[in-house]
Task: structure prediction
Amino acid sequence: MYAQAATVIAHRPAAPIPAMCKGMARDTVSRVSGVGLLQNVPADTALFAEGDDADNVYEVVRGMLKFYKLLPDGRRQIMGFLSAGDLVGLSFTGIHTYSAEAVTDVTLCRYSRASFDRLVDEVPGFARRLLAVRSDELRAAQDQMLLLGRKMSVEKIATFLLMLADRQNDAQDVIDVPMGRNDIADYLGLTTETVCRTVSKLKSLGIIRAISATKIKLLNRDRLEELAVGENNNDL
Amino acid sequence: MYAQAATVIAHRPAAPIPAMCKGMARDTVSRVSGVGLLQNVPADTALFAEGDDADNVYEVVRGMLKFYKLLPDGRRQIMGFLSAGDLVGLSFTGIHTYSAEAVTDVTLCRYSRASFDRLVDEVPGFARRLLAVRSDELRAAQDQMLLLGRKMSVEKIATFLLMLADRQNDAQDVIDVPMGRNDIADYLGLTTETVCRTVSKLKSLGIIRAISATKIKLLNRDRLEELAVGENNNDL
DNA sequence: CGCAAACTTGATGTTGCTCAAGCTAGGTGG
DNA sequence: CCACCTAGCTTGAGCAACATCAAGTTTGCG
Result:
């Protein structure tokens, strides 16, 4: 099920400033913010697939997306989850190198490739800003390579929970986990069952508590931070 | 052992064009090529470490570098190997997020951060070019995430050998493997022993042949390409 | 309230890791 | 020039972490 062009709502209202423009001059930001189209996408809807023409670039306004790669036999690696302010679909080859899909209902701001390219060329500082954005994406990808290649399941889960907490920045350390166990597994290079078991283990150790199906409270963030980098976890 | 500033040889001669300028206008390229300093670094020398101030950016002119991240207990993930034309050390936070070390004797072209920043701001198209470079680094990192999270050891080794072959583009499919088994293991999320065993298995299957310690000939590239994505490898 | 999908837990299996012991090749000194 | 020596490579045996297969159990939705 693909998102249809018919789901476009309206041109972006003047107020919300594209997050990708952070740090740019005010008059140049207005050049960017007029170009995008707001668009709603329901949960579990594909936005595009690996190999598709990269006709559009999207900024997430609300909700959560995932993007992933597949092997021929169906094994899947989720490269990341994206929320408000994140950019997706920006390709320089013209072909998407991964698939993207809505985790929750999502609102996007869509830019056509042509108009986006024009912005890169004509808006002063825009290319440089995108370079900073992309550099941060790369840094995150490299952190994830360390996780996938060298961390054990407890370390992976601890790292994942802390990442969610850091993004949401809730004072009570109650985090929302909108994605399913299977998505978490495919993000961390584990199976659904191992994710379950490892989360259960953290519960029984009193480090986290399940508030509801999609809400987890971090009871001992310091311990979680130790576990995330493999310190003092000999006993587990 | 750190590389010393004393190893600087000379300003880059006029002839060699920085690879990072590929596709840029001729007159702007000359603005870049005058700024760098050539520098030799012997094998197994650290260039910088994670956490260091990112004072310099380097382009590899000759030889091979590796860059990696460590966990507190010493587990290591090599994020990549870099050869002629690759850029290393470009950070926007001012702090290196990984360590870098020479695999072979290496010649680098060094740019101070200050002068590099000036080029980004002043040379038309330079930020855009770096954006393309960084996008390709990101794409490679995402391929590697798929490998680390979801591929089996045979698929990892096959992918690795094909990557080396693609880079070197030798008509006889004889590839040079300058890095040690331990580096390969830390790049693929395996151990030295598993790398050895898996390479041995590919030899015994007649898919590759060892020419010398650091030279491997690909006897059946098609089979290797199947193995790399997990097709028809039920029997292994 | 019932149903299906997702989650959880348990039993068993397999891949790749750990530990251990040769082996080989390149560099050094006699 | 050759023997030695050491670091890295290779192979083997046993083991641990995680995957797979198989039941339950919970949850959210119609």
